Amino acid sequence: MDWNDVRLFLSIARTKTLSAAAPELGISQPTAGRRLRAFEEAMGTTLFQRTPIGLQLTGDGEVILKQAERVESEMLGLMRSASSDSKELEGELRLSTSEWFASAVLVRPLTAFTTNNPSVTIELLGETRLFDLGRREADMVFRFQKFDGPDVVQRQFAKVSYGVYASPAYVQRLGTPVLRDRGEGHQIIAMDRGHERLADVAWLLQRFPLAKYGFRSNSRDMQALCCAHGGGVAVLPKIIAKDFDLIELHLDEAAPGRDVWLGYHSDLRRVARLRAVIDHLIESVPREF
Fold it and tell me: Distance (Å, rounded) from C-alpha 103 to C-alpha 124?
């Protein structure tokens, strides 16, 4: 049995579609379909059924899923063990974090690292999705909350400061929002509904409960652009806001900051290139910005 076919089966079970599973394995959708049919023939049963909400596991598929997950766990552990004693600064590292943190904080020091260590390739993924270190979706992850996995080595990497901003054009048009008006007549820029419970969103709404949403996005970069174009009042990381022509609004207290946590699987603690990247980033990136 081909391990890659097991990986394909697991990916389809998790994503529910061939179109989403195929890119994870670097293959086309038709190839994924052919390999799934071959895998089902090898298993002697139908593993998925098509439904309006995607490919759903059959009863036999559910049974095989549990066995495949155990195989996956063993294979990934084997792969981590095989790379854990690498003493050379060569090979690939896959890092994941939010898009704005990747571009504003990590790209420059990582570029310097790969320039000085040309045998190391850095793959940096800017996504809001939380990558699974146990399934080796990434070798190292930067996130804005602590990790809860039992096999994750983590440390507080940095603290991000936030501020409240508006563009000169917005202030000229609607004036500077003040607390006593509770935001009446003003528009705010905030995270999308999936992230509306973040501390900075709640903090701004408490001060301007009568303001209306003008723009919402899961991208801090898009929020900053909208703010710069006069779309409303936004809470933004100061490291992003400094690149735009924005006015910082000083309210009753500073906007809540956020801690950034670095994490990787404990099996990778002896990988030389991972340790070298971590040491370089700790030395290059300020602890607070």
Answer: 10
